[in-house]
Amino acid sequence: MVTRLYTNSICLEHLTPPGHPERPDRLRAIDKVLAHEVFAPLDRAEAPMARETAVLLAHPENYARRVRDAIPAEGIARIDADTTVSPKSWEVALTAIGGAMAAVDDVFTGKADNVFVATRPPGHHAEKDRAMGFCLFNHVAIAARHAQEAHGAERVAIVDWDVHHGNGTQDIFWDDPTVLYCSTHQMPLYPGTGAASETGAGNIVNAPLPPGADGEVFRQAFEEKILPRIDDFRPDLIIISAGFDAHHRDPLAELNFTEEDFGWATAELMERAGRSAGNRLVSVLEGGYDLEGLALSAAAHVGRLMKG
Ligand SMILES: [Zn+2]
Hints:
By secondary structure, this protein is an alpha/beta fold. The chain has helices at residues 25-33, 61-70, 89-109, 139-151, 167-173, 215-233, 259-276, 291-307, and strands spanning 3-7, 43-46, 77-80, 83-85, 114-117, 156-160, 179-186, 204-209, 237-242, 281-285.
């Protein structure tokens, strides 16, 4: 099994205001934990910058222009109450997109069995034409479209275990039965979407969890509501929106997962990728705001990816 890791130090240069939870130290914490010798076999590569047209796989051109025009020459500019851009944000955004697309290329060309893309900012709240929740562009949505357009994937499953609902991913694929979107998330919580009744074209599977839910509740929801849908769907590729803010240490929400729960879910999805997708699995970092919880969770996740 070859597990590739994409990072790029330019992702440290998307700046947010002091005290903002989505901060460069998040990536430093992941870098540090993955520097341990048990991760030496990782196939490490620099996330490449995507071409600007890649944005158009999931967003209209006038939206892309709006984001670029919002980027200041200096300082930090606000797009909404909690989403900001700084001078390097355009290059950073294209690098986060480029990492997710390169990961798709790698699993379809056999360069890697699975890939973890450690970039920021996160992407799953970005709707077709709206930046929100720290997110500018929807990296997993662009990656799924890229798999379909460049590699002939017919069915792509996106599994989102970030503690927040991926309203953006749901918005982009709402009426598209070629993409299955499955999410566990705390409810009620930002952004307010993600009720079980939101099913799109029958391709949206929301499994909301109540505040305080622990890994046992998560595993049960995963086993009963999500895994059977993936089994039926038989995806050609599985993409994980890997947010680690459901960890019990995280300050933004009230779920109580442990790092072992993320490892367990990783193994379950790898098994499904083995059944229908030739092991092809791409995992893209989303949230996770307690540095220790984030590092422990990413380590459990990547460690499991490497085990095959
Ligand atoms: Zn989140």
